[in-house]
Amino acid sequence: MIRFDNVSKSYPKQNRPALRDVSLEIEKGEFVFLVGSSGSGKSTFLRLLLREERASTGQVHVLGKDLARLSNWKVPQMRRQLGTVFQDFRLLPSKTVSENVAFALEVIGKPRGEIRKAVPQVLELVGLGGKESRMPGELSGGEQQRVAIARAFVNRPMLLIADEPTGNLDPQTSVGIMKLLDRINRTGTTVIMATHDQQIVDQMRKRVIELEQGRLVRDQSRGVYGYQH
Amino acid sequence: MRAQFVLSEIGVGLRRNLTMTFAVIVSVALSLALFGGSLLMREQVSTMKGFWYDKVNVSIYLCNKTDAQSFPACAKGAATEDQKKEIRADLEKMAVVQKVQFETSDEAYKHYKEQFGKNSPIAASVTPDQMQESFRIKLKDPTKFQVISTAFSERPGVQMVQDQKDVLSDLFNLLNGMNFAALGVMCLMLVVALMLIVNTVRVSAFSRRRETGIMRLVGASSFYIQIPFVMEAAFAGLLGAGLACVLLVSGQYFLVNNWLVNHIDVITFIGWDAVLAKLPLVLAMGLLMPALAAFAALRKYLKV
C-alpha cells in the first residue's frame, strides 16, 4: 500500500532536513497513528503521500506507484484514490452539506446519477442523515468534520489521510470522530492519522509511528502515544 | 466534463469580479477596434494609392516665350517644334512609358480656368500664351519617375519635369503615420487589457483558493481546475471583441457611408466587404488572447 525507502526531504533555504532516511511499510487496511512534536516531519510525511512534495532522496510508493516517476498529469488520477481530512475542515461555506460532498465528485466529472446516489449514502454513514441541506456555518465542529470526512470518503478511496482531524474538537466530539474513522477503517480503507491527541492514541491501541526531528524513532503495533516528554 | 458545472462557475467568477470584468471588456474592445480600424485604414490607403496612381502622370513642361526671363533652363527661349518632336519620339521609344499626351497651351488654359473657376481674379489675369505646353506621360509603373526625370530635365526646351505622385505622397505619408499611431495606441491598450486580465486572474484565483485547493485534493485534473478561469477571460474578451465589431460596423456606417462619401467624392472608400472580412479576425483575437493571457497567469498564481 505505502512504502518509504530511505526517504529524505529537505526544503530549500533550510539547513535541517524535514525527513531523514525514513523507511517503512504500511499494509492495506491498517490504521496508523503518526505522532511527534511540531516540526518533527509529520506534515512533510503526509505531503509526500499526497505528492504535494517529492522526496529529495529515496523512493515513496503509494498504491503501488513510485511517486517520483509519476508524471504530473497523472497525479490527479492518483489523488482520486486518496481521501484527505484536515484540522480546519476546509468546507465551502456557501454550499450546503450535500453540495460540499457532491463537489468532490462533480469536479472529477462523475455522472450526476451516481452523485445523487452516493452523497446521501455517505452522509448516512457519517451520521449526518437529515442534515443534507444545512450550511456548514450552522453545524458544530464535530459535524463539520463529519462533512469533511464524508467528502473525503464519498469516492471510496483506498487510503484516508487525516491531518489532526480532532485538533479543533473537544474530547467527547473527538471520540465520535475516532469511532467514525475506525468504522471507515473496517470497510478496508487504510487510515493514516497524524495527531497530538495522547488520549485517543492510547485508547485506540493501533500502530504508532513516531517521528522526531525528521527521523523515524518508533514504529510500534498496538502502541501508545509515547513516553512522557 | 460537466458543462453546467463549469458554466455556473464562470458565472460566479464573472459576477464576483464585475468591475474588473468590465474594465477587461472595455480595454479589449478599444484595442481591437483600433486594431480593426488600422487594418481598414491600411486597406483604404492602398485602395487610394491604386486609384490615384492610376490617374497621375508625369508632366514635362515645355518652355514658352515668357519663361525666358524667369527660368534659367529656358534662357534660349520657347521650345521649338523640332525639340517637341524629338521629345515625343524619345518618350514613345521608352519601355516604361505607357501613353504620351500632348497638352497645348490652350488646353492648359482651359483646365486652369476649370480648376479656379471662371470668375476667379487669378484666372482672369492669366492669358493662354502664358500657359505652358506639356507632355502628359502615363507610366507603366508609377514609381519609375526617376527614369523620365533624368532623361528629360536637362533637355533644351524643357522647363521642368514634375512627378504628380510627389504631391500625393505627403498625403499617403500622413495617412501611414496615422495608421502607425493607431497601431501604437492599440498595442498600448492591448498591454493594458492583458495586464488587467492577469490581475483579474490573480484576484479570482485568490478568492477561489478554497475551491481550487479542494479540487486539487480530491483529484480534479488541472484542466478542470483551470478551465473556469480561462473561460472567464475568454468570455470577457469575446464580449469586448463583439463591442469592437459593433464599433467598426458603426464607424463604417456612420463615418464612411453616411458622411465621408457625401462630403468627399474624389476618393473611393472601402466597402462593407472589407469591414465584414475583418470581424472574424477581431473576434478570434478577442477570444484567444485573453484566454492565453489567463492561462499564462494561472501558471503563476494557481498551483495545480
TrEMBL record, chain A:
Compartments reported by the entry: Cell membrane
PROSITE patterns: ABC_TRANSPORTER_1 (PS00211), ABC_TRANSPORTER_2 (PS50893)
Keyword Nucleotide-binding: yes
Keywords from the UniProt entry: ATP-binding, Cell cycle, Cell division, Cell membrane, Membrane, Nucleotide-binding
Membrane topology: Peripheral membrane protein
Alphabetical list of SMART domains matching this protein: AAA (SM00382)
GO molecular function, one term: ATP binding
Record-level GO cellular component terms: plasma membrane
Family: Belongs to the ABC transporter superfamily.
Function: Part of the ABC transporter FtsEX involved in cellular division. Has ATPase activity.
Protein name, UniProt field: Cell division ATP-binding protein FtsE
Protein's organism: Streptomyces eurocidicus (Streptoverticillium eurocidicus)
Automatic annotation (TrEMBL), chain B:
Organism listed in the record: Streptomyces eurocidicus
Subunit structure: Forms a membrane-associated complex with FtsE.
Family per record: Belongs to the ABC-4 integral membrane protein family. FtsX subfamily.
Superkingdom field: Bacteria
Alphabetical UniProt keywords: Cell cycle, Cell division, Cell membrane, Membrane, Transmembrane, Transmembrane helix
Protein topology in the membrane: Multi-pass membrane protein
Entry's localization field: Cell membrane
The keyword Membrane is annotated on this UniProt entry: yes
The protein, known as: Cell division protein FtsX
Biological-process GO terms, alphabetical: cell division
Gene Ontology, cellular component aspect: plasma membrane
Domain (ABC3 transporter permease C-terminal) ranges: 185-303
Signal sequence region: none
Sequence ranges assigned to domain FtsX extracellular in this UniProt record: 56-161
Primary localisation category: membrane
Keyword Cell division: yes
InterPro entries reported in the protein's UniProt record: ABC3_permease_C, FtsX, FtsX_actino, FtsX_ECD
Protein function: Part of the ABC transporter FtsEX involved in cellular division.
Lineage: Bacteria, Bacillati, Actinomycetota, Actinomycetes, Kitasatosporales
Membrane-crossing segments per the record: 21-41, 180-201, 222-255, 275-298
